Amino acid sequence: MKDRYVYYTLALISVLWFLVAMEILRGLVARTSFPEYPVSWRKVPRSPKFTEKKHSLIRALERTDTELINTTLTGPLLPRYNLSAPGQYGKGVFINMSTLTEEELLRYNDGYEKNGFNQFVSDMIPVSRYVGDVRHPSCQRKTYRNDLPSASVVIIFYNEAWSVLWRTIHSIWNTTPHQLLHEIILVDDASVQEHLGKRLDQEIAKYPKIRLVRAGKRSGLIQARNLGFSHVQAEVAVFLDSHCECTEGWLEPLLQRIAVDYRNVAIPLTDNINSDTFEYVGSTLNHVFIGGLTFDLYFAWIPIPEKEEKRRVSLTDPIRSPTHLGCCLAISKRFFVELGTYDPELRIWGGENMELSFKTWMCGGRMEIIPCSQVGHLFRRVMPYSWEGDGYRTMIRNSLRVAEVWMDQYKKIYYDRIYYSQNDIDIGDVLSRKAIRERLQCKPFDWYIRNIYPQLYIPIGCKATGQIKINNICIEAHTGESSFGKPVHANDCVYLGTSQHWTWTRENTIRRDEGCLVYNGIHSVVMGPCTALSDYIRWEFTQDNYIRSYVGQRNMCMELNRQEGLVIVRKCTGSPLQKWKWKRRTINLT
């Protein structure tokens, strides 16, 4: 009899465990996203038959994906994490391509080509991803005032991958106190991919705090942000790219700074989401960089100045930043309106972050990086979509408008960077933008340089500027820190090619921003920092047009190696390959 009771008890326990397991499995399936698998310049050989087969396979895959997607995201956006799924805790997902089927390989390559990142991996990761609490322990202990303003989060997207877009949305919802989140405003900049059409309308209709605004035609990130801002009802507007992931406690520190002064523009620490593996790489407060600029009017990461380090009491104190990256920021609605929003004549992308940075500081505001706010940003490998006409020319046009309105006499340095072609580009009327400066009694750009960015190198007193060339071959190199130690190349000269612009400085360096041409002591010219002034970075541009190194007896000259497309150093021989053309001129700010 006793054995029978034991048998029935064990059987009952087995049944109960089975029911529990089925319920857990049902929950995991409900919480796992199956976004579509819409990848890369990494091509596989394709015959006509293969291409035809590819398109039929992709159409079949898209039908399958649509069925899967429609089984997910059907309830309110609650913080529900399948912690056993790929990518949780911010981990990267690594793909062994040799194990992929033909269909999977198509999916893998197609995702890179469409997005400039690994969509195949993104689609394996649930849209509700838990990256962990990446904040510094001191940030986790911070408390914030009870009367923080509410925020509208504005997200601009154009042909964004479904899984990436929805992961951005979920990360906001899962990490934001709902009393502080007034709404999420999605602005579609005239996307053409099918999954961002009717299906997106139907999906968003399920969520009362998400609004979808569609642009009638493509206008680019800048004007789409202005469009989204026109719908903001909260006291604070937060602008985010559509490929971000917000983390625990990201919003409160931003709102706190704006609550202290409505003219504070609050920038989160920008963490990196790897474009290949989607690993979330958090920042550490001991190694924070702030926003700077080059005189190409591009953003540049720079170290925190010693003066600013001394001003701050703790690692969690806000950090004053001359500029911001542009992907993520919070600004009060009142201050953004006072500043005239983004210039309505800036097109597509580029220059808007410089404009907002300059006028924030010059017109009575402050731009700060907030260490206790961390937002991950996916940096694409390449820009996967086209601009209107000549995209590079569009960026120069935008930068010229910013320079004309805000940079005063320093705009001449930008003119020099674009080879004094400012009169060849129609930038439109800027009188209304200058009127904003007058109305707000904004400070001059010289004040900005002296007080906000005194470490910026100003190339006045130079002795030659522009392209350094032999025939139509120009010296070309990028000058960022990631290029230090790399060989300097020689390529066909390009009209408006800012990476081919060089200045022979008053210190006898050949420089662009923080990068200098360096003789390595053997036969190579490499890119390096300009901080350590030594003979290895000093050059003489002689009257007979040779570029001599200061090293040793000054008998080593810069030479063009046509075969390798490199700039090298050889003993001065009078060879035509050592005779360079370079315009002898200076930059005068008066």
Percentage of residues in DSSP E strands: 15-25%
Query: What is the CATH fold-level name of the largest domain?
Result: Spore Coat Polysaccharide Biosynthesis Protein SpsA, Chain A
CATH architecture of the largest domain: Alpha-Beta Complex
Radius of gyration: 28 Å
Distance between the termini: 107 Å
Show unreliable segments: 1-79
Structural class designation:
alpha+beta
Count of domains: 4
Number of strands: 24
CATH superfamily of the largest domain: Spore Coat Polysaccharide Biosynthesis Protein SpsA, Chain A
Estimate the mean pLDDT confidence: 87
User: Helical content, roughly?
Assistant: 25-40%
Main pleated-sheet profile: 8 strands, antiparallel
Count of DSSP H/I helices: 16
CATH class of the largest domain: Alpha Beta
Q: What is the molecular shape?
A: globular
In short:
The chain is an alpha+beta fold. It contains 16 helices and 24 strands. The termini are far apart.
Can you walk me through this structure?
The termini are far apart. Strands 13, 14, 15, 16, 17, 18, 19 and 24 form an 8-stranded antiparallel β-sheet that branches. A 5-stranded mixed β-sheet has the order 3-2-1-4-11, sandwiched between helices. Mean pLDDT is 87; it is low at 1-79. Strand 6 (264-273) and strand 7 (280-281) form a beta hairpin. It is globular, with a radius of gyration of 28 Å. The protein has 590 residues and is α+β, with helices and mostly antiparallel strands. 30% of the residues lie in helices and 21% in strands. It contains 16 helices and 24 strands. It has 4 domains: 35-71 and 88-124, no CATH class; 148-378, Spore Coat Polysaccharide Biosynthesis Protein SpsA, Chain A (Alpha-Beta Complex); 391-451, ppGaNTase-T1 linker domain-like (Helicase, Ruva Protein, domain 3, Orthogonal Bundle); 464-583, Trefoil (Acidic Fibroblast Growth Factor, subunit A) (Trefoil), CATH 2.80.10.50.
